[in-house]
Hints:
This is DUF4397 domain-containing protein. Keywords: Signal. The protein is mainly beta. It has four domains: 10-121, Sandwich (Immunoglobulin-like); 128-236, Immunoglobulin-like; 241-332, Domain of unknown function DUF5300 (Immunoglobulin-like); 336-451, Immunoglobulin-like (Sandwich), CATH 2.60.40. It is built from no helices and 37 strands. The chain has strands at 10-14, 28-36, 43-47, 50-55, 64-67, 70-78, 84-86, 92-95, 100-107, 114-121, 128-135, 143-149, 158-162, 172-175, 177-185, 191-194, 198-200, 204-212, 221-226, 233-236, 242-248, 255-261, 266-268, 272-273, 281-283, 286-293, 299-308, 313-320, 326-332, 341-348, 361-367, 379-384, 387-394, 397-406, 409-420, 426-433, 441-448. A five-stranded mixed beta sheet has the order 1-10-9-2-5, with no helix packed on it. The radius of gyration is 25 Å and the shape is globular. The two termini are 37 Å apart. Mean pLDDT is 92; it is low at 1-24.
Amino acid sequence: MINVKNTTLFLAISMLAACGSSDDSSGTGFVQMYNASANSPTVYLEIDNTVRTGAAFGEVTTRHNYNRDDYALNYVYLNDNDDYIPLLSDDDTLAIKSDVKLLKVLSGDYNEPRIDEFAISEFDGEDKIQISAINTISDQQEYDIYLAKDDYAFVDAELLTSTQYLSLPELQEKSEDHYTFYITLAGSDEVIFQSSMVELDDEQSYIAMLRPSFSSQPGGITLDLVSDGSSVTSLTHVDAMSQMRFYNAIDEYAAVTFNALSTKDDITTPATPSDTVTDYFPANAGTFTLSMLDSSNNPIVNNFVEAVNKNTSLISIFYQHTDDYPAMISITEDLTPNAVSHNVQVVNLIDHSPYDTNIAKVDIYFTEGNETIDDTTSYIKNIDAFATKSLALDSQSYDVTVTYEVNNQTISVLQMADIDFSQTGNYILILEEDSNTTSGYKITQLKTLAE
Protein backbone atom coordinates (compact mmCIF):
# COMPACT_ATOMS: atom_id res chain seq x y z
CA MET A 1 0.00 0.00 0.00
CA ILE A 2 1.33 3.43 -0.95
CA ASN A 3 -0.17 6.59 0.45
CA VAL A 4 0.32 9.88 -1.37
CA LYS A 5 0.82 13.18 0.41
CA ASN A 6 0.89 16.64 -1.09
CA THR A 7 4.17 18.43 -0.85
CA THR A 8 5.74 21.53 -2.34
CA LEU A 9 8.91 20.79 -4.24
CA PHE A 10 11.60 23.04 -5.55
CA LEU A 11 13.52 20.94 -8.08
CA ALA A 12 16.88 22.33 -9.14
CA ILE A 13 18.92 20.44 -11.71
CA SER A 14 22.64 21.13 -12.03
CA MET A 15 24.29 19.06 -14.75
CA LEU A 16 27.95 19.78 -14.18
CA ALA A 17 29.87 16.96 -15.83
CA ALA A 18 28.12 15.17 -18.68
CA CYS A 19 29.74 12.12 -20.19
CA GLY A 20 28.89 10.04 -23.28
CA SER A 21 27.36 10.97 -26.60
CA SER A 22 23.66 11.57 -27.02
CA ASP A 23 23.22 8.63 -29.39
CA ASP A 24 25.00 6.11 -27.15
CA SER A 25 22.27 3.64 -26.19
CA SER A 26 24.54 1.29 -24.26
CA GLY A 27 26.55 1.60 -21.09
CA THR A 28 25.92 1.82 -17.37
CA GLY A 29 25.46 4.80 -15.09
CA PHE A 30 24.75 5.30 -11.42
CA VAL A 31 22.51 7.12 -8.96
CA GLN A 32 23.09 7.94 -5.30
CA MET A 33 21.31 10.23 -2.81
CA TYR A 34 22.67 12.27 0.09
CA ASN A 35 20.15 13.44 2.69
CA ALA A 36 20.79 17.01 3.86
CA SER A 37 17.22 17.60 5.09
CA ALA A 38 17.66 17.90 8.84
CA ASN A 39 14.05 17.24 9.86
CA SER A 40 13.43 14.34 7.49
CA PRO A 41 12.97 10.67 8.23
CA THR A 42 15.04 8.03 6.44
CA VAL A 43 14.30 8.61 2.74
CA TYR A 44 14.51 5.83 0.15
CA LEU A 45 14.99 5.97 -3.59
CA GLU A 46 12.05 4.46 -5.49
CA ILE A 47 13.10 3.71 -9.06
CA ASP A 48 10.56 2.26 -11.51
CA ASN A 49 8.31 1.34 -8.56
CA THR A 50 11.11 -0.56 -6.81
CA VAL A 51 12.25 0.77 -3.44
CA ARG A 52 16.04 0.82 -3.19
CA THR A 53 18.29 1.88 -0.28
CA GLY A 54 17.63 4.89 1.95
CA ALA A 55 19.47 7.55 3.91
CA ALA A 56 18.70 9.46 7.10
CA PHE A 57 19.96 13.01 7.65
CA GLY A 58 23.71 13.14 7.05
CA GLU A 59 23.76 9.74 5.34
CA VAL A 60 24.03 8.51 1.76
CA THR A 61 22.36 5.67 -0.09
CA THR A 62 24.14 2.87 -1.87
CA ARG A 63 25.34 3.79 -5.37
CA HIS A 64 22.89 1.94 -7.63
CA ASN A 65 23.81 1.08 -11.22
CA TYR A 66 21.38 1.16 -14.16
CA ASN A 67 21.64 0.80 -17.91
CA ARG A 68 21.60 4.05 -19.84
CA ASP A 69 17.90 4.97 -20.04
CA ASP A 70 15.16 7.05 -18.43
CA TYR A 71 13.47 5.73 -15.28
CA ALA A 72 10.61 6.87 -13.06
CA LEU A 73 12.03 8.25 -9.80
CA ASN A 74 10.44 9.14 -6.49
CA TYR A 75 11.57 9.50 -2.88
CA VAL A 76 9.68 7.67 -0.14
CA TYR A 77 9.79 7.11 3.59
CA LEU A 78 8.40 4.18 5.57
CA ASN A 79 5.84 5.18 8.20
CA ASP A 80 5.17 3.09 11.28
CA ASN A 81 2.24 1.36 9.55
CA ASP A 82 4.76 -0.05 7.07
CA ASP A 83 3.42 2.11 4.22
CA TYR A 84 5.80 3.86 1.83
CA ILE A 85 4.84 7.55 1.60
CA PRO A 86 6.01 9.34 -1.58
CA LEU A 87 7.67 12.73 -1.30
CA LEU A 88 6.57 13.84 -4.79
CA SER A 89 2.95 13.81 -5.94
CA ASP A 90 4.19 12.79 -9.41
CA ASP A 91 7.28 10.79 -10.34
CA ASP A 92 10.41 12.57 -11.51
CA THR A 93 12.56 11.26 -14.37
CA LEU A 94 15.95 9.71 -13.70
CA ALA A 95 18.04 10.06 -16.89
CA ILE A 96 20.95 7.63 -16.52
CA LYS A 97 24.05 8.40 -18.62
CA SER A 98 27.01 6.12 -19.32
CA ASP A 99 29.86 6.26 -16.79
CA VAL A 100 28.24 9.10 -14.85
CA LYS A 101 26.99 9.10 -11.27
CA LEU A 102 23.94 11.29 -10.65
CA LEU A 103 24.22 12.48 -7.06
CA LYS A 104 20.85 13.59 -5.73
CA VAL A 105 20.94 15.95 -2.73
CA LEU A 106 17.77 16.30 -0.66
CA SER A 107 17.80 19.46 1.46
CA GLY A 108 15.62 22.04 3.18
CA ASP A 109 12.48 21.51 5.23
CA TYR A 110 11.14 18.04 4.48
CA ASN A 111 7.63 19.47 4.04
CA GLU A 112 8.93 21.86 1.33
CA PRO A 113 12.05 20.04 0.13
CA ARG A 114 14.60 20.89 -2.48
CA ILE A 115 16.28 18.29 -4.66
CA ASP A 116 19.47 19.07 -6.58
CA GLU A 117 21.20 16.77 -9.04
CA PHE A 118 24.93 16.75 -9.74
CA ALA A 119 26.53 14.71 -12.54
CA ILE A 120 29.94 13.29 -11.61
CA SER A 121 31.94 11.41 -14.25
CA GLU A 122 33.63 8.17 -13.28
CA PHE A 123 37.23 8.75 -12.17
CA ASP A 124 40.03 6.18 -12.25
CA GLY A 125 43.19 8.24 -11.78
CA GLU A 126 45.93 6.04 -10.34
CA ASP A 127 47.23 7.51 -7.05
CA LYS A 128 44.87 10.45 -7.61
CA ILE A 129 41.52 11.65 -6.24
CA GLN A 130 38.93 14.21 -7.32
CA ILE A 131 37.41 16.43 -4.66
CA SER A 132 35.12 19.43 -4.21
CA ALA A 133 32.58 20.68 -1.67
CA ILE A 134 28.91 21.68 -1.38
CA ASN A 135 27.44 24.02 1.22
CA THR A 136 24.11 22.56 2.36
CA ILE A 137 23.91 24.75 5.48
CA SER A 138 22.50 28.08 4.32
CA ASP A 139 22.40 30.50 1.42
CA GLN A 140 23.23 33.28 3.89
CA GLN A 141 26.87 32.26 4.40
CA GLU A 142 29.55 30.71 2.19
CA TYR A 143 32.78 29.01 3.25
CA ASP A 144 36.36 28.46 2.14
CA ILE A 145 37.62 24.88 2.33
CA TYR A 146 41.33 24.18 2.77
CA LEU A 147 43.31 20.94 2.58
CA ALA A 148 46.60 20.24 4.35
CA LYS A 149 48.57 17.03 3.92
CA ASP A 150 48.83 14.85 7.00
CA ASP A 151 48.21 16.93 10.14
CA TYR A 152 49.95 20.09 8.93
CA ALA A 153 48.85 23.42 10.37
CA PHE A 154 46.47 25.83 8.66
CA VAL A 155 49.38 27.97 7.51
CA ASP A 156 50.50 25.04 5.33
CA ALA A 157 47.02 24.31 3.92
CA GLU A 158 45.96 25.05 0.34
CA LEU A 159 42.61 26.47 -0.67
CA LEU A 160 40.53 23.66 -2.18
CA THR A 161 37.43 25.64 -3.10
CA SER A 162 35.04 28.35 -2.07
CA THR A 163 31.54 26.97 -1.63
CA GLN A 164 28.40 27.99 -3.43
CA TYR A 165 25.11 27.13 -1.73
CA LEU A 166 23.79 23.83 -3.13
CA SER A 167 26.11 24.13 -6.08
CA LEU A 168 29.14 22.01 -6.95
CA PRO A 169 32.33 23.88 -7.89
CA GLU A 170 34.71 22.15 -10.30
CA LEU A 171 36.33 19.04 -8.86
CA GLN A 172 40.04 19.41 -8.11
CA GLU A 173 42.53 16.61 -8.73
CA LYS A 174 44.78 15.79 -5.77
CA SER A 175 47.24 13.08 -4.82
CA GLU A 176 46.05 10.14 -2.78
CA ASP A 177 47.18 10.95 0.76
CA HIS A 178 46.21 11.70 4.35
CA TYR A 179 44.61 15.14 4.71
CA THR A 180 43.32 17.59 7.30
CA PHE A 181 40.37 19.81 6.38
CA TYR A 182 40.13 23.43 7.52
CA ILE A 183 37.06 25.65 7.10
CA THR A 184 36.81 29.43 7.34
CA LEU A 185 34.03 31.85 6.56
CA ALA A 186 34.38 33.04 2.97
CA GLY A 187 37.24 35.54 2.70
CA SER A 188 38.34 35.06 6.32
CA ASP A 189 41.55 33.52 7.64
CA GLU A 190 40.02 32.55 11.00
CA VAL A 191 39.61 28.78 11.25
CA ILE A 192 36.15 27.74 12.48
CA PHE A 193 36.60 24.02 11.77
CA GLN A 194 39.56 21.66 11.77
CA SER A 195 39.08 17.96 11.12
CA SER A 196 41.13 15.08 12.35
CA MET A 197 43.42 13.58 9.72
CA VAL A 198 41.65 11.33 7.19
CA GLU A 199 42.94 9.06 4.42
CA LEU A 200 41.57 9.70 0.93
CA ASP A 201 41.93 6.66 -1.36
CA ASP A 202 42.83 6.90 -5.04
CA GLU A 203 40.44 6.45 -7.96
CA GLN A 204 37.68 8.11 -5.94
CA SER A 205 35.62 11.27 -6.35
CA TYR A 206 34.91 12.91 -2.98
CA ILE A 207 32.23 15.53 -2.33
CA ALA A 208 32.64 17.26 1.03
CA MET A 209 29.13 18.07 2.26
CA LEU A 210 28.98 20.89 4.81
CA ARG A 211 25.95 20.49 7.07
CA PRO A 212 24.82 21.59 10.54
CA SER A 213 25.88 19.18 13.30
CA PHE A 214 22.69 19.48 15.37
CA SER A 215 24.64 18.33 18.38
CA SER A 216 25.89 19.77 21.62
CA GLN A 217 27.80 22.53 19.80
CA PRO A 218 25.45 25.41 18.86
CA GLY A 219 26.10 26.37 15.25
CA GLY A 220 28.49 23.45 14.85
CA ILE A 221 29.53 22.14 11.43
CA THR A 222 29.95 18.55 10.31
CA LEU A 223 31.80 17.71 7.10
CA ASP A 224 30.49 14.54 5.45
CA LEU A 225 32.74 12.99 2.81
CA VAL A 226 30.60 11.34 0.12
CA SER A 227 32.31 8.96 -2.30
CA ASP A 228 30.99 5.88 -4.08
CA GLY A 229 30.64 3.93 -0.83
CA SER A 230 27.36 3.28 0.94
CA SER A 231 28.32 5.34 4.00
CA VAL A 232 29.81 8.76 4.58
CA THR A 233 32.93 9.63 6.51
CA SER A 234 31.70 12.22 9.03
CA LEU A 235 34.31 14.68 10.28
CA THR A 236 33.72 16.93 13.27
CA HIS A 237 35.72 19.84 14.62
CA VAL A 238 38.70 18.59 16.65
CA ASP A 239 37.77 20.99 19.47
CA ALA A 240 34.01 20.38 19.37
CA MET A 241 32.46 20.41 22.82
CA SER A 242 30.13 17.75 24.20
CA GLN A 243 27.43 17.92 26.85
CA MET A 244 26.17 15.74 29.71
CA ARG A 245 23.05 15.48 31.85
CA PHE A 246 21.98 13.10 34.61
CA TYR A 247 18.86 11.31 35.88
CA ASN A 248 18.27 9.77 39.32
CA ALA A 249 15.97 6.73 39.18
CA ILE A 250 16.70 5.59 42.77
CA ASP A 251 13.58 6.69 44.66
CA GLU A 252 14.98 6.32 48.18
CA TYR A 253 17.16 9.38 47.60
CA ALA A 254 14.90 12.42 47.45
CA ALA A 255 17.68 14.75 46.35
CA VAL A 256 21.15 13.99 45.02
CA THR A 257 24.14 15.76 43.52
CA PHE A 258 26.04 14.47 40.50
CA ASN A 259 29.75 14.99 39.89
CA ALA A 260 31.63 14.38 36.61
CA LEU A 261 35.41 14.73 36.75
CA SER A 262 38.01 14.53 33.97
CA THR A 263 41.44 16.02 33.38
CA LYS A 264 39.76 19.06 31.79
CA ASP A 265 36.40 19.36 33.55
CA ASP A 266 34.92 19.27 37.04
CA ILE A 267 31.11 19.30 36.79
CA THR A 268 28.92 19.42 39.90
CA THR A 269 25.14 19.69 39.59
CA PRO A 270 22.78 21.43 42.00
CA ALA A 271 20.72 19.21 44.30
CA THR A 272 18.37 17.25 42.01
CA PRO A 273 15.11 15.59 43.13
CA SER A 274 14.56 11.92 42.29
CA ASP A 275 13.03 11.15 38.90
CA THR A 276 14.23 14.51 37.61
CA VAL A 277 16.68 15.16 34.81
CA THR A 278 19.36 17.81 35.30
CA ASP A 279 20.17 20.61 32.90
CA TYR A 280 22.87 20.03 30.31
CA PHE A 281 26.47 20.75 31.26
CA PRO A 282 29.13 21.48 28.61
CA ALA A 283 32.05 19.07 28.65
CA ASN A 284 35.28 18.52 26.78
CA ALA A 285 35.66 15.10 25.19
CA GLY A 286 37.54 12.74 27.48
CA THR A 287 37.30 10.04 30.13
CA PHE A 288 35.14 10.99 33.12
CA THR A 289 34.56 9.52 36.55
CA LEU A 290 30.93 9.94 37.55
CA SER A 291 29.62 10.02 41.13
CA MET A 292 26.24 10.52 42.77
CA LEU A 293 26.09 11.95 46.32
CA ASP A 294 23.22 12.06 48.79
CA SER A 295 22.02 15.21 50.57
CA SER A 296 24.81 14.81 53.15
CA ASN A 297 27.45 14.48 50.42
CA ASN A 298 27.91 10.77 51.08
CA PRO A 299 28.68 8.82 47.90
CA ILE A 300 25.90 6.59 46.59
CA VAL A 301 27.83 5.87 43.40
CA ASN A 302 31.51 6.68 43.23
CA ASN A 303 33.92 6.98 40.30
CA PHE A 304 32.01 5.14 37.59
CA VAL A 305 34.04 5.53 34.37
CA GLU A 306 32.43 7.05 31.26
CA ALA A 307 34.13 7.88 27.94
CA VAL A 308 32.63 10.99 26.35
CA ASN A 309 33.35 11.45 22.66
CA LYS A 310 33.55 14.88 21.04
CA ASN A 311 30.40 16.52 19.69
CA THR A 312 28.25 14.15 21.76
CA SER A 313 25.21 14.61 23.98
CA LEU A 314 25.11 12.02 26.77
CA ILE A 315 22.57 11.21 29.48
CA SER A 316 23.65 9.06 32.44
CA ILE A 317 20.83 7.30 34.32
CA PHE A 318 21.48 6.02 37.84
CA TYR A 319 19.27 3.15 39.05
CA GLN A 320 19.02 0.33 41.60
CA HIS A 321 20.06 -3.05 40.19
CA THR A 322 18.22 -6.32 40.89
CA ASP A 323 21.04 -7.39 43.18
CA ASP A 324 20.45 -4.29 45.31
CA TYR A 325 23.42 -2.19 44.30
CA PRO A 326 23.37 1.18 42.50
CA ALA A 327 24.33 1.12 38.84
CA MET A 328 24.42 3.42 35.82
CA ILE A 329 23.50 3.27 32.16
CA SER A 330 24.47 5.99 29.67
CA ILE A 331 23.03 6.60 26.22
CA THR A 332 23.93 8.99 23.43
CA GLU A 333 21.09 11.37 22.60
CA ASP A 334 19.85 12.12 19.09
CA LEU A 335 19.46 15.90 18.84
CA THR A 336 18.37 16.21 15.20
CA PRO A 337 15.11 18.16 14.57
CA ASN A 338 13.10 15.22 13.23
CA ALA A 339 9.58 16.32 12.40
CA VAL A 340 7.95 13.59 10.30
CA SER A 341 9.05 10.67 12.47
CA HIS A 342 11.05 10.50 15.67
CA ASN A 343 13.77 8.29 17.05
CA VAL A 344 12.53 6.90 20.39
CA GLN A 345 15.07 5.27 22.71
CA VAL A 346 13.49 3.04 25.38
CA VAL A 347 15.43 2.43 28.60
CA ASN A 348 14.10 -0.52 30.62
CA LEU A 349 14.71 -0.28 34.38
CA ILE A 350 11.95 -2.80 35.28
CA ASP A 351 13.09 -6.10 36.75
CA HIS A 352 10.26 -7.04 39.17
CA SER A 353 6.72 -8.14 38.32
CA PRO A 354 3.54 -7.07 40.14
CA TYR A 355 3.77 -10.47 41.83
CA ASP A 356 7.25 -9.76 43.19
CA THR A 357 8.98 -12.13 40.80
CA ASN A 358 11.89 -11.23 38.58
CA ILE A 359 11.29 -10.04 35.00
CA ALA A 360 14.11 -10.72 32.57
CA LYS A 361 12.68 -8.63 29.70
CA VAL A 362 9.63 -6.62 28.65
CA ASP A 363 7.80 -5.73 25.45
CA ILE A 364 6.44 -2.26 24.65
CA TYR A 365 3.61 -1.53 22.20
CA PHE A 366 2.47 1.77 20.67
CA THR A 367 -1.14 1.71 19.45
CA GLU A 368 -3.46 4.27 17.88
CA GLY A 369 -7.23 4.42 17.47
CA ASN A 370 -8.78 0.97 17.78
CA GLU A 371 -5.51 -0.91 17.33
CA THR A 372 -4.57 -3.66 19.73
CA ILE A 373 -1.11 -4.87 20.63
CA ASP A 374 -1.71 -7.69 18.13
CA ASP A 375 -2.50 -5.24 15.32
CA THR A 376 0.18 -2.62 15.72
CA THR A 377 3.42 -2.61 13.78
CA SER A 378 4.99 -0.18 16.27
CA TYR A 379 6.57 -2.16 19.08
CA ILE A 380 9.82 -3.35 20.61
CA LYS A 381 10.07 -6.85 22.01
CA ASN A 382 12.50 -8.46 24.40
CA ILE A 383 14.05 -5.39 26.00
CA ASP A 384 16.33 -6.86 28.64
CA ALA A 385 16.29 -5.39 32.13
CA PHE A 386 18.70 -2.44 32.32
CA ALA A 387 19.11 -2.32 28.55
CA THR A 388 17.97 -0.03 25.74
CA LYS A 389 16.38 -0.46 22.32
CA SER A 390 14.95 2.06 19.87
CA LEU A 391 12.33 2.47 17.15
CA ALA A 392 10.92 5.19 14.89
CA LEU A 393 7.46 6.61 15.57
CA ASP A 394 5.32 8.90 13.43
CA SER A 395 4.61 12.40 14.68
CA GLN A 396 1.41 11.84 16.71
CA SER A 397 0.09 10.48 20.03
CA TYR A 398 0.01 6.81 21.01
CA ASP A 399 -1.36 4.62 23.75
CA VAL A 400 1.54 2.72 25.29
CA THR A 401 1.39 -0.77 26.82
CA VAL A 402 4.27 -2.53 28.56
CA THR A 403 4.01 -6.30 29.02
CA TYR A 404 6.04 -9.36 29.93
CA GLU A 405 5.46 -13.07 29.47
CA VAL A 406 5.45 -15.87 32.01
CA ASN A 407 4.26 -19.46 31.45
CA ASN A 408 3.11 -18.48 27.91
CA GLN A 409 0.82 -15.82 29.38
CA THR A 410 1.11 -12.13 28.49
CA ILE A 411 0.83 -9.90 31.56
CA SER A 412 0.51 -6.11 31.50
CA VAL A 413 2.86 -4.04 33.63
CA LEU A 414 1.23 -0.71 32.78
CA GLN A 415 -0.82 1.13 30.18
CA MET A 416 -0.71 4.84 29.47
CA ALA A 417 -2.98 6.73 27.07
CA ASP A 418 -2.14 9.53 24.66
CA ILE A 419 1.61 9.92 25.08
CA ASP A 420 2.50 12.67 22.64
CA PHE A 421 5.33 12.27 20.14
CA SER A 422 4.45 15.18 17.85
CA GLN A 423 7.03 17.79 18.84
CA THR A 424 10.14 18.41 16.77
CA GLY A 425 13.11 16.34 17.95
CA ASN A 426 13.44 12.85 19.39
CA TYR A 427 12.54 11.07 22.62
CA ILE A 428 13.80 8.92 25.46
CA LEU A 429 11.36 6.74 27.43
CA ILE A 430 12.51 5.47 30.83
CA LEU A 431 10.48 2.50 32.11
CA GLU A 432 10.65 2.46 35.92
CA GLU A 433 9.20 0.88 39.00
CA ASP A 434 7.43 3.43 41.23
CA SER A 435 5.70 2.60 44.50
CA ASN A 436 3.81 5.91 44.39
CA THR A 437 1.71 4.91 41.36
CA THR A 438 -1.32 2.63 41.34
CA SER A 439 0.31 0.18 38.93
CA GLY A 440 3.68 0.30 40.69
CA TYR A 441 5.34 1.45 37.45
CA LYS A 442 5.70 4.57 35.35
CA ILE A 443 7.10 5.93 32.11
CA THR A 444 9.25 9.06 32.11
CA GLN A 445 9.41 10.81 28.74
CA LEU A 446 12.35 13.06 27.86
CA LYS A 447 12.73 15.07 24.64
CA THR A 448 16.06 15.53 22.88
CA LEU A 449 16.71 18.44 20.52
CA ALA A 450 19.69 20.65 19.75
CA GLU A 451 19.31 24.21 21.03
